[in-house]
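Researcher: I'd like a structural prediction for the single chain below. Treat it as a standalone chain; there are no partners to consider.
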Amino acid sequence: MRPENYKPVQHSASHEYELYFGPNHPGIEGNYALKCVLSGDVVQSLRADGGYLHRGFEKIMEERLWIQNVALVPRICVPDPVPMEETYARAVEMLGGLEIPKRAQWIRALMLEASRVCAHLFYFGGHAATMGMYSNMFWGVTDRDLILDIFEEITGARIYHMYITPGGVRRDLPEGVLDRLSKVLDYVESRLPEFDNLFFDNAVVINRATGVGTLTTEQALSWGVTGPNLRACGLPFDVRRDDPYLIYDELDFDIPTETAGDAWARTLVRREELLQSIRILRQIIATLPKVGGPIRCALPNPLAWNVPAGSVYARTESSKGELGFFVVSKGGAKPWRVHVRGPSSMHAVHVLERLGPGSRLEDVAQIMFSLDACPPEVDR
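Model: Treating it as a single chain, here is the predicted structure.
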C-alpha cells in the first residue's frame, strides 16, 4: 500500500537532463568533451570541456631551445601538422632577420598543400561518420595514407615530420618523389566522382547538413571565425592571397566560397579547396625542378643560438583557418613568450557553444565536425 503522504512526481512538459559527449566517443572530434543540457532531443545549452590531451605547449616552448621546439610544434594539430612547423620556423626567421633560399620556399609550399589535402580527406571521412557513413571515412583515411607515404619518403616520418626548421628544410627532395606525388594526385582527383556519388551528391547528407549550424557573416566576423568556415559565409579571405608568404604570390589559385554558412556550405568549400590544393601542387611540381640552389641558409650553432630581441606575429592559412604564432625574444637561447593562435580555439569553443543550442542531439557531432576543430589547438 502507498503511504498516506504519497504524492506522485509532477513532470514538466519539458524535462531537462545532461548528456556528456566525449572525451572518448565516436561523435566527438578527438579527445574532447561537450557537456550538453537537453530538453527531449533539443540542445538547450552546450559547454566545451577540453584538457584531455597533451597540454601546455606554449609554456613548454618557453623552456626549450629555439631548435628543440621544432619537434614539439607539430603535435599542436595532428591532422595538419605542417603549418605548425612552417609558422613557427617563419616566426624565428622574422626575429633573426633570415631570408630562406627560394628552393626551400617552394618545398615548404609543397609540404603545406599536401598537408591540406590530407586534412581535407580526413575531414570528409569524419563528417560522413557523424551520419553513419563509415565507408566514406575508410576511403578518406586510406587515400590520405598515400600522401603520408610521400611525407615518409621526404622527411622520414608520416605525421610528425620535424622537416621544416628555422632557415629552410632539413634535406632536399628525394629523386623521383615529384613524379610519385603527381601520380598520387591523379589518383586522388580520380576518386572524387566516387566521393561525390557516396557523400557529396547523397540526398541524405544534403538534407541532414543543410540549415544545420548556420553562421551569419556578422556572427563569423564577431566570433573570430577564419578559414573555410568564414569562406562558407561568403567572405573570400585567405591568408595565402591577402597576406602572401613563401611563394604564394607566384601561384595561380582560386578562393572557393559559399553563402549559406551552414554545415553543408562548409563541406562544399572544403571539397573545392581540395581541388585548388591539387592545382597548386601541380604548379609546384612543374616549377621545382627549375629552382636550384641551397635548401637552407647558414645558422649559428643551434644549441647556442641567441635569437635577437623582438616580437613578431607570423600567420599561415592552415586547413582549419588562420594559424598564428606570436613569439617574443629577449635575445636569449629560448623564446621568452610564445602564444599560438590556433583557429580551433575559436571554432571548438566560442562558435560551437553558440551554435549548439537549438540544434537536435543527432546534429551536435555534425556541427563540431563541420567546423573541423582540432582539440590539441585548444589544449595548447
